[in-house]
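Dear colleagues,

I hope this message finds you well. In preparation for our joint manuscript, I am sending the ATP-dependent 6-phosphofructokinase (Aquilegia coerulea) sequence together with its predicted structure, so that both groups work from identical material. I would be grateful if you could confirm receipt.
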Amino acid sequence: MDCNDPSWKTKSEEDFENNRFQIPHLTEIFVDDVSIPSTFCLKSRRSPVITEEFVEGYQSDEKWNGYVNNDDKVLLKVIRFSSPTSAGAECIGPDCTWVEQWVHRAGPRENIYFNPEEVNAAIVTCGGLCPGLNDVIRQIVITLEIYGVKRIVGIPFGFRGFFEDGTPEISLSRNVVENIHLSGGSLLGVSRGGPSVSEIVDSMQKRGITMLFVLGGNGTHAGANEIHNECRKRRMRVAVVGVPKTIDNDILLMDKTFGFDTAVEEAQRAINSAYIEAHSAYHGVGLVKLMGRNSGFIAMHASLASGQIDICLIPEEPFQLYGPHGVLRHLKYLLENKGSAVICVAEGAGQNLIGRTNAQAASGNSMLGDIGVHIQQEIKKYLKENSVPAEVKYIDPTYMIRACCANASDGILCAVLGQNAVHGAFAGYSGITVGICNTHYVYLPIPEVIAYPKHVDPNSRMWHRCLTSTGQPDFN
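The corresponding structure tokens are as follows:
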């Protein structure tokens, strides 16, 4: 963007709204299709004994219906930075000129694209486990039924379920999903990888699927976007809608993703155990490894929430173990002055300190070395060489956290995301995902949220808050 162009700001705002964040709609392919009145009723249920005088100034039931207009927008960025040196500043131009960026508001529309009697909906959960998967599945099914959909199926074990023999689809209804949110995991099962996009769409055509709800992270959403594009290429009337699922909270533009709050809360149990072990031993060291392949949000938030962490290590902040400014030197200082220490490390942190392998997971991601075990061994070695007696306790709660039920906060988030995913599909949008942005629920085009993972900003206020809490120095 040329900031010397007098009209650059207007052009930037137009490009943002009309190009980058314009969400795809099926009428772009089927131009003659018309909408129909919604079957999702939102009439208020006001008591008939309340007089009109009491509700003067409020719309009557006949005028209010609670639907969202297609032109409703949510402001993506709400802070107007006055200086590029402000914490976390994102500026366009040297004077931090404000550029309004609006995205589409999520919710039920007064007119819908699909006739519920003709809808054949499918749900698939991909990637790894995450607290809240069953909550989202439950709300998608319940909302579909309220619209009047009769045919709802679950595809077992991720995208593999479209192709693998011996994995029949699962018929879903309110009775089937009523209590699944009381259990962790996914009713449908999960897996990584799967058949080609062409094979998946072939299977969708064979099954007559008209709505596909895809629950997964960045890689899964990339696959969902390819499925959307292939369906458009074949001129199929199919709405493909994603629900971002990543326990690491590393999806762009969103306040948070479901499962993150639960992960941070459950991580407190492991941190508290490490704290007790460390403080109950002579020169005790508690070491906790938490999830966070590329982003350290869980480690940062868990450290800040617990108030028991002395050292927090995340992928975004390189560190040294040895040397005058290394982690081990500071650990020795803590043991000599406090008598104990607790360390929290994200799984993706310090990978440069471990010999890399060329092994890859089914998702295509490279296999990480175990930084927790590596640090544990180096701590023991260093303290022994420096004649500092110590006990090191290592805790890795990764799979315990992934497999648990969603907490209350995530349960609410999952409910609203699942409902809004269905509203978006019935409105005729495809190639979109639903998320929460500045406390409001929005629809975003998938390519914008998977451009790259969201990372902890080392200059952000939240990371500075974490450093204030731990009191740790710069380990570079």
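For the figure legend, we might mention the following. Residues 14-68+106-255+406-437 form a domain with the Rossmann fold fold (CATH 3.40.50.450). The radius of gyration is 25 Å.

With kind regards,
E.M.
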